[in-house]
Amino acid sequence: MDTPIEDVNDLGVFAQNGANAPAGEAGKGGRHRRRTASSSRPHVTVSDAPTAIPVVPKTPTVPAVDPIATTRTVTEPIARPENVTDPIPATTPNTDGDDHAFIEFDHVSKTYTMGETHIQALDDVNFRIDNGEFVIVVGASGAGKSTILNILGGMDTLTSGKVFVDGNEVSTYNDKQLVLYRRYDVGLVFQFYNLVQNLTARENVELATQVSRDPLDVDEVIDAVGLNDRKDNFPSQLSGGEQQRVAIARALAKNPKLLLCDEPTGALDYNTGKQILKLLQDYARRSKMTVIIITHNYALTSIGDKVVHVKNGHIESIELNAHPMNIADVEW
Ligand SMILES: Nc1ncnc2c1ncn2[C@@H]1O[C@H](COP(=O)(O)OP(=O)(O)OP(=O)(O)O)[C@@H](O)[C@H]1O
Ligand SMILES: [Mg+2]
């Protein structure tokens, strides 16, 4: 594949919302997190719950092998892009002198302009998220949830305001800084998967790990999402739910400090969806990864440390759950 590194890194992100230009020029703040060994993150499977967490009853997550699906044996490793060893960008401290939360949206507005039409997708959005928080973002269709996630993931620009992540003002990043930010800091599960169609499930996951500083084991993560038997299939040979799980495995395997999931269980049946959410919840708890999940399912608000309600481009309310429920105990 001769995809340039920016495209490889973004893994098709530009299909989403159609905008990816940077907001401006400024310095990359420091604190790029380097991990010394992948073993610093525990291997988590859907049935591998911490003892304090009730285990979800085991249910089959891997559909029977599709007899008409063809598979391809991968004999050649994917070529590692040559410029993945970019140095960590130079640190430029924030200029406003304020202490910022791990993630902070500060008066963020976003207007899409199409000819004479202006669509105010976000209007003065403010919220803060702490490191390691498991956050649920809920709201009706068109409320602005994906816009928030796309801006946070460095894939869309904002019209006004500021966005901080881990002490850095990402809303001022230039193109190069955004590429590095997306490559090393963010794992994204897209609402519409955005898998690379001419790569197998395993290759899609492997591709993401090749632009990570501290990736997880590809096969272990594929196994954790219940796709061990399907990993040599191309996306077109997978069901929607299987593709969604490839997308989740791809984001998790990067071992990012910030995992952004846009409707990660939208195509999954009840039990599989629950197991995937449990995987994400366990992973976040054990590894202190900050996870943000967009959903329409209000039952899931009980599992978040924080719940951000979005309505008509505004933050309607923000709730804190002192005792978030385990996903295994939530029914809907
Ligand atoms: N690229 C775009 N160009 C123009 N308008 C857009 C674009 N992307 C989103 N919008 C508009 O911005 C608003 C917010 O969209 P967004 O995708 O954030 O909603 P959402 O809350 O994720 O909805 P859903 O639950 O249906 O995915 C909507 O009115 C949408 O039509
Ligand atoms: Mg959306």
Would you mind describing this structure in some detail?
- The chain is an alpha/beta fold.
- Among the domains are: 100-185 and 258-332, Rossmann fold, CATH 3.40.50; 195-256, no CATH class.
- 22% of the residues lie in helices and 20% in strands.
- It is built from 7 helices and 10 strands.
- The chain has helices at residues 5-10, 145-152, 175-184, 201-209, 218-224, 240-253, 270-287, and strands at 103-114, 117-129, 134-139, 160-165, 168-169, 186-189, 258-262, 290-295, 306-311, 314-320.
- A 6-stranded mixed β-sheet has the order 6-7-8-3-9-10. A 4-stranded antiparallel β-sheet has the order 2-1-4-5, covered by helices on one side.
- The radius of gyration is 19 Å and the shape is globular.
- The termini are far apart.
- Residues 1-78 and 80-93 have low confidence and may be disordered.
- The structure holds adenosine-5'-triphosphate (ATP) and magnesium ion.
- Residues 145-146, 191, 262 line the site of magnesium ion.
Concise overview:
The protein is an alpha/beta fold. It is 22% helix and 20% strand.
